[in-house]
Amino acid sequence: MRYARVIAAVCGVLVLASALPALARGSQLIDRNASAVRLQVSKQGKALLSYRAGGRQKDVLVWGAVDARLPSPNVPQVELKVDYSGGGKTLHRSAAGTFVDTCKPYRGPYLFWLVTACTAADGSFWAVQSWQRALPDLGFTPWLPAQSTSELRISHFTGPIATFQVWTDWVYGGRYHHLFGKLSYKGAPVHGFKTTKTGEPLDAYGRNLYLDTLSSVYGAGWRRENSFVAQKPSGMFCYGFYPFKPSQDYPSPPGTPQDQPRGPGNGQRYRITVTGPGVSPDVIWEGNGLPTYDPKNPDLVALEQQQNAIQDGLMGSNRLCRAH
Fold it and tell me: Would the pTM of this model clear 0.85, i.e. be above it?
């Protein structure tokens, strides 16, 4: 995510780690490129995650947090405790051979990117999801191994999960396609309190939203268009599908011409994935793209006016999402 990108996009519906790895980022990152994943949960509320990665069998013990706190500048966000020795460091023995699984079939809300999930003895839910968070922006095909990794992420939750509201329209007289919306949790906005100059959250409340585009100028299938932050204090976000040149903020494969813009990445469909707040699960929005804007088409004109009114109503004191 690049906050500068959001500013450029601005100035210029539905529900559902590499930077700062020490911060809790929603469903908690456990490993990458895992297979043969098994989830067990004891009646004491500890989860044992077993899988293969890097050519080895791994057992990871996880416990100690559930759901999420609403944004606060003074109270830390919840975070799971993780024992990568499978209990050796905390229990002084491996839990793998003696672990008693009491988890029942999963009865919680539908989740995307789901690997496995279950309902614990206390009624709470544990879920494991896996998806490619680190894909390169601007539709580039991954050229480094780290860019194509699938992150294995675990969550622990009891009730409602994060929700999206997303709308699509046009900006600058219909010249560019555009989307905007709001990220919420338990009816409250999801946002952090500070970011780097390029928009990476500097606290565990901040959330980046990862936008993919389907069947665009980048090629067939889903490609990563960009990423951006849910803004303080409203949880609102907005993004314009503009041409962007490869740069330090937009790394590109060797030999890519740096003076040739990429995009716009208008697609047939869009999806946004975000790691849930606290240790709640990751959520996704997916929706249709738009036709080319025609100011002589009364239906498109009416839609644009309607969406602009919605955007203005969401914006409040937010100055970054003003472009129509």
Answer: yes
